[in-house]
Amino acid sequence: MASFLLFDKIQSLYGSSGQLLTSGYLKFYVVGTTTPQDVYAESALTTNVGAQVALDLSGRPVYEAWGNTTDAYFVELYDSNDDKQGEISRKEVPGGTGQSIPVPNVDEFMTGDGTNFDTENLANRLVPDPTGQANKVLSTDGSGLTWIAKPADGATPTLPPLPTGGITVTTSTVLLGDVLIEFGTGSASASASHTTSQSVSFGTAFTSAPKVFVQPTGGGVTGDGYYVIPSITSVSASGFAVGFNVNEDGSESGKNISLAVAFNYIAIGQKTA
Length: 273
What we know:
Largest sheet: 5 strands, antiparallel
Structural class: mainly beta
Radius of gyration: 42 Å
Oligomer: single chain
Number of strands: 20
Mean pLDDT: 89
Helix content: under 10%
CATH topology of the largest domain: Immunoglobulin-like
Order of helices and strands: EEEEEEEEEEEEEEEEEEEE
CATH architecture of the largest domain: Sandwich
């Protein structure tokens, strides 16, 4: 049974006017009631000294007063004339009764959940004994740790399984099972205006419209060196259209697209048989 110290024998107690409480006494109750609650003379909670502990001529308790950590105590302090000098509304193990410290059993260690103390079995946390486990490596079965034979030096590692349908690579596509990645280049003509556009047909059609990403390459494409901003205007399983815009106001010729707009693209989507 876990215990905690309510009052020790070396502390003198004083009354409401600062007077030493010679031959006074302490009374202990269940919190929130007038029901007496016994205390004990030692941490083992063996010697029950009742619900009242006398003070000696120095105002010190004649016994140490120990309580059970599962209990909380209401305490009253009296002088030798039975006049009440003060009270403690709730005296309990520091941090509350939930903070009682459990005693670990064999092969257990102390831990906590962020609020209270707890115990846990060491077998779930410690590395198993390596004695006699030469040329083995540590592994797990999902619940505990164990030693397994290590692969021979130079052995081919076990790779994860390939996607269903395998992997097919060409100069412009990568097919991972039923996921197709297609990439390439294109060029939109010099339009002598602020915008231009270009349609692209996929070399290998997708099953449904993929996601398409376009990046212009090279430098400025106008007389004044302006760059263009791309915008995907339509996408289908067989291709897409992209527009380019200088995104500048005004009719100055230096803002018109005077060079072809080169671009790279990549499309990612589904390709089923």
